[in-house]
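ok trying this again, last paste got cut off
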Amino acid sequence: MTTTKDLSRYESTFARIKEARAQAIHHTRLAREFSAERRDLMQSLLDQGVSQSDIARELGVTRQAVQKMLAC
């Protein structure tokens, strides 16, 4: 036989956990959107003849970092 514990004294803590989770989910969605926008903008530059090296130099990252950003 299982009994249900009274967790009401932890209600505010559970509420804070739920809010933190909701914020993390929202942040993850925004990060995905920004990543897609960044990739599209970089691809546009590449289509216009700008090299990955030039993009990397302007962004202050390595060419390999640009390749990874384009792959995501």
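PB: full thing came through this time. The CA atoms of residues 62 and 72 lie 16 Å apart.
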